[in-house]
Amino acid sequence: MIPYTVNIKLAARTLTGTLSLQNKTAVDWGWQGLIAQGCHSSILIIDPKTAQTIQVLEKHKANVVKVKWSRENYYHNISSPYCLRLASGDASGKIIVWDVVSGTAHCEIQEHSKPIQDLEWLWNQDASRDLLLAVHPPNYIVLWNGDTGTKLWKKSYAENILSFSFDPFDPSNMALLTSEGIVFITDFTHSKPPGSAGKKVYIASPHASPAHTKPAPTAALAPTGAKKALNKVKVLITNEKPTAEAVTLNDCLQLSYLPSKRNHMLLLYPREILILDLELSQTVGVVAIERSGVPFTQVIPCAQRDALYCLHENGCITLRVCRSTAAPEEAADPEQAAQELVYDLRSQCDAIRVTKTVRPYRMVICPVNENNAALMVSDGRVMLWELKSHPIILSLSSLFSSGLSPLYSPVSFCGAPLGPNQKKIQDLSLNSMIGQTLTAGEAPPPNTSPQEVQLKFLLTGLLSGLPLPPFAIRMCPPLTTKNINHYQPLLASGIHIKSVCVCLSCRGIEWVSLTSFLSFATSSPNNMGLVRNELQYVDLPTGRCFAFRGERGNDEPPIEMIKVSHLKQYLVVVFRDKPLELWDIRTGTLLREMAKNFPTVTALEWSPSHNLKSLKKKQMAAREAMARQTVSDAEQSSVESSVISLLQDAESKSETSQAISAREHFVFTDTDGQVYHITVEGNTVKDGARIPPDGSMGSIACIAWKGDTLVLGDVDGNLNFWDLKARLSRGTPTHRGWVKKIRFAPGKGNQKLLVMYTDGAEVWDTKEVQMVSSIRFGRNVNYKILDIDWCTSDKVVLASDDGCIRVLEMAMKSASYRMDEQDLTDPVWCPYLLVPRAAFTLKAFLLMQPWSGTFTMDITQVDMKSVLQDPELSLLQRCLLVSRLFGDESDLHFWTIASHYLQSFAQARQLSLSTADGQTQSEGTHPPPQSPLDICHDTLCESSSFQKFQLDRVRLQEVKRSSYEHTKKCADQLLLLGQTDRAVQLLLETCADNPSYYCDSLKACLVTTITSSGPSQSTIKLVATNMIANGKLAEGVQLLCLIDKAADACRYLQTYGEWNRAAWLAKVLLSPAEGSDVLKRWAEHLCSPQVNQKSKAILVLLSLGCFYKVGEMLHSMRYFDRAALFIEACLKSGVMEANDSSNILSSFLEYARLLRSLGLREGAALWASRAGSAGEQLMEELFQGEGGAPEVILNEDDVKQGREDTE
């Protein structure tokens, strides 16, 4: 027999079903790797890798409308561990912050009683990560401390706020989407509410805005599709309030900043997506749907690549990737060069079948890797899609060419060039699937052979919910000592079925064995009140299902209930206006159809007493007598008694498999409350005693019988307890109205009773005749109970009208459960579920095992096992991979920048060393060229790629300008970028009737004659400084840039608090040395207590190559593991000298202490051995009592290997 693991103690849980319309926006995919989803008033926590629900949070009384995972953009250690923290807001205005692992609420927040419109955790400063910003209708934004629930500040606005979006590049900028337009806030800070009311702009609807187009040449073709849509939205954002018609057409669904490039915003309309450049307040790109296309409902912009995930009304998810805006070489006219931002459709998944009750609600994507999407459907389904890249064979690529530019996979892995034998994770993240060649618009670099790829969606998981209520539930027979080897806790749930020809509603279920059950359903009545009854027998192992009553069931009174006898021999079928039927379950035959004058049954129950044991004893005695007769005395002596007993045993088994018809009883009540007793044995049915009605009871609605206790419940809410042994009866009024159902708990001697009323349920103790616990709709729960049963001897199961089935403790408190108590189907990889010490031990274990020389992996559930075991995986790649694996946002940002610039500076150092030695490298020995840092890192990128991006952007702005203000802004940008000739052309375009005509003409003259030196320069500098002093900062900075005093311009910008603008200018105009000074001052400013963004300052210093300073800062901030690993990576790449500086030694020592506290002794010994004299003391403590023999653990070769420098 196959052994089964029997979980006798089933954990409390909630099985969820369909979603409410208010749950539509309540879904979020966190950096922790889990999805949170609102389902009525509950919150599901879903593991997308295994497609299973691992937690259900219940405390809200109203429908959940928003959920938001906290961000992981902070340094994690034992005091700030990895934790699962979630904020949720409901329709009554309550916000709850959860500790998801324990299922408890950190704090509860209530400001108003209207649905929460939007939620976001602040992630941008190092001081606190507990700050939660919420939109409370109609027009308030409130900043809360999510740990204590205290209000920090509150601000109201003139219009109703629908949602908001933070600028991912500058957290002081945010945009509010209001009922009339957009409000831009530029002074957001956590310390005080925004001072101004923000800059209000109105959205002219794409269909209402006038078409500002130049007259097309006669030869040109008429614009079609996206081009036509772009013409419609030439002027999109205005400062004037639009006309009433335009406002009625304002159907903007969503507003979001683009995380892939600065100062770009996305507006979503049902039939187009508009990309705005916020410096111009102008549309620079559009994704339009043709007339026959399916409208958009949601769009999510990616950070790793300029790409958009779009959800359509039919449930189809499409991925659109931005085409290059680079100008072709032969295009002399910039108008021809940069047309607009075009997002090409690169992949799409299958649509779902949309019906009245089934429609797509929301999509979320994985924020860590951006190559997984989850679709929430209104019927409770969660569809998990994964983006896969497939290499295209060059010979076939021409056949499948779609006219789009090719996508290439990057030649690096985890930020480093791929080694010849190195293992690679194919689809680790979006930026490891698509290289930058597409977005940079260049040919692939020489000496590389990039692989052209095609993207496809693959359905990797499907999570289904329960069907629509109402439904009936019934738990399978209880666990006993006899069935313990093959028991499985199964719950049958009957539903309402609608089809073209018939509408059936499942009314009840009764189990006839551990693996088979009977269920009955009735159709809606016809004119005569007759229905179609169906009684189905279902066998689970074989899947066989048949009509138990054969051809019977058409046009008869509806079945009221079915009751299976205690030994599962007989079945009673009770009808509304027709005498009951008695069936033999084993043979499927009708034993008796009662006479017409049989009393009407109101309640019925089988007795647990029977004569099976006495029958078996009689059979055994008769068999033994037969065995003695057949075996003679002579043979008796020769045949061993054990053989006879074996024969008898086998015979008894075969006999019991042939049914023994035991005698069983049932009782029922009629409309007058009289109790009848009927005995059934084989084919015979005998009428027994009749007990007159109890005067204190109304019409009996249900009966339950266990042992010597019989309980009756009536329509008035009275319970009558009969003690059959003592012949006593005791009535108790519950004052709860109609007693719908009563069920005894399983288990010998367990006399608990579950009672269901129209407004809730109660648990009673029949021994003491007192109530144990109660649950009531409207008082302590917000759902109505449809059906009840016992799950185990101490847990109840309730079906409710919100489409959920809840398994609760006997106290029936709706509490969330601890996740470590759950028995999950599949093991889950989530370090956040571990206790802090275990999580950091695992992280240290995955990061570095240099004490053994090889890498081993005993953790079975890591998808990346083979890659992590690969000895060719460098330390930097390993750090990046582990930060992805842990969903550690802070770690990922740090190691991405660190690995890029460590390799970049190491390459530059190698080149300078080789040229200093007079070596001339042959073509083949050049290091592989490194691709530039992704533009989503903005001012952290190299100056060359940053300048190129800004030039492409200003070309695009130039093409899109449609007013004098736009032209002026373009000219200003071109002057700052050093493109003086083009700027002069734009300045000379100013019309003569424009008030600025004279100014612009003079400016054009100034720009063209600026080359002369001497007194003119000093005059211009004097004018510029006077302008800046008198509040004209931008104009003064322009003049300084014209006379090559950009460094002074940056200093002025920084003095006046324009730090981001100064960094931008330094990147596009200054030499590396001058730019470095400007950025170092910015880093110092970021470290100041008022700003407190040291983590961002570290990234700035990394981009400048100040690696010693970064090591010092990490150590001073007590980021010991990051400091030690970073210094180690610097030593290995040769950008730092191995010396005995106190910073290096103390970082290694503190990391050794950290490893010792985690129990990794060999790791601690290695780092301590490299920490100088202080490390020796730690070594002694580590190996105390072992005769001071660290050499056994750590030999000299290992130490050398640890110290070895790649140089």
Give the helices and strands, then pairings.
Layout (H helix, E strand, L loop, with lengths): L12 E3 L11 E3 L5 E5 L2 E6 L4 E7 L5 E6 L15 E6 L3 E6 L4 E7 L7 E4 L9 E6 L3 E6 L5 E6 L4 E6 L7 E5 L2 E5 L13 E5 L22 H7 L4 E2 L5 H5 L5 E4 L6 E5 L3 E6 L4 E7 L7 E6 L5 E6 L4 E6 L11 H4 L5 E6 L11 E6 L6 E6 L4 E10 L2 H4 L9 E2 L3 E2 L2 E2 L12 H4 L3 H4 L11 E12 L8 E4 L15 E4 L1 E3 L4 E9 L4 E8 L9 E7 L4 E4 L11 E6 L5 E6 L5 E4 L4 E5 L9 E8 L1 H19 L2 H6 L2 H17 L5 E7 L5 E7 L2 E8 L8 E7 L2 E6 L3 E6 L4 E6 L5 E6 L7 E6 L2 E6 L4 E7 L8 E8 L2 E6 L4 E5 L26 H12 L17 H4 L6 H12 L2 H28 L26 H18 L3 H13 L3 H8 L9 H13 L5 H15 L3 H10 L3 H10 L3 H11 ...
Keywords: Cell projection, Cytoplasm, Cytoplasmic vesicle, Cytoskeleton, Golgi apparatus, Nucleus, Phosphoprotein, Repeat, WD repeat
Subcellular location: Cytoplasm, Cytoskeleton, Cilium axoneme; Cytoplasm, Cytoskeleton, Cilium basal body; Cytoplasmic vesicle; Golgi apparatus, trans-Golgi network
Protein name: WD repeat-containing protein 11
